Amino acid sequence: MSASFVSTLIQFVIVFALLLFFHEFGHFIIARLLHIEVEEFGFGFPPRIVRLFHAWGTDFTLNWIPFGAFVRIKGENDPDVKGGMASASPWTRLGILLGGPVTNILVGIVIFTAVFMRIGAPQTNIVQVMDVAANSPAQSAGLKPGDMILKVNDTPITSITGLQDAIQANLGKPIELTLRRGSQTLQLEVTPRANPPQNQGPLGISISNPYVPIALPQALPTAVSTAYEQMRQIILLPVHLIQGSLSPDQARVVGPVGMFDIYQEARQRDIQASQAPTPEFPAVNVMWFVGTISIALGLTNLFPIPALDGGRILFVLPELLLRRKVPAQYENLVHLIGFATLILFISYVTIQDLVHPVVLP
Known about the structure:
Blueprint: H1 3-33, E1 38-55, E2 58-73, H2 90-119, E3 121-122, E4 127-132, H3 137-141, E5 148-152, E6 155-156, H4 160-168, E7 175-181, E8 184-190, E9 205-208, E10 211-212, H5 216-235, H6 237-243, H7 256-275, H8 285-300, H9 309-322, H10 328-355
Antiparallel strand pairs: 1-2, 3-10, 4-5, 4-9, 5-6, 5-7, 7-8
């Protein structure tokens, strides 16, 4: 076991523990704001090492298992405890249950905001050549990485889709590309191939939207939009599987082992990016991965699965809608069974991650 592997493992444990800490902190802060006592806020999981201090009616403790945190809210599952969570109004319980997942989503948005402030945001109305394949029509015509494609013949290019459509309409025909290269405007003639080699397009170029620097007022809404799109894709995952637009391998669920594999790859790519003589982007792969995990952690905790926050919210809804409360003993039994099932599922996923390690494209 190399020192690099151990270092990466320690970093991953710390990062994942912080995400779990923020989740529990969300529950803690909302409970305190709604005047529900939190008996213990534990750093790590029991058994306890020491009580660090006592504040706001809460014991802050350090525990032996250094992976995340937990909160023990007064009367969390016992409606007979006066002033506890289970005896509080349904709106109070709903707020406390939402506190953890919403905090994870907010943490993800903050991370994405920092990423966009570092790399900028894509300028979607400009198409830039990122790479030119050897022995391709683009190379023969003189295209270079960094060129901005302004026109195909007399058609202005304002999107990647627009360029692709214009090229497809002229396969096998000479076309004139209007380019911007630095401060120069150039016209080059090139003939798109009707039958390009595998993994190449008609011109033999890879294209993208150039990134432009942005400040906080632009980065924040971009981060919110990114978080929304990620959550939307997670929710639509079963639809994509049924439609066949995603393979089971692409949509596989990963556990801690699989996440560590992805974290290792992200860190390696960051190291490679930082060592490149002229890096295309700053090294933000780990930041992006952590933001994505935080968003996914927040959203999946809202799913109506027993033992998760979403499952507990499901038992609050009848009281909100019908003013009838599900007996605590039934709810607790469902969550106990759900928790046991969840542990079995995580164990199965972990075995799959070990037998079939995650391989990124």
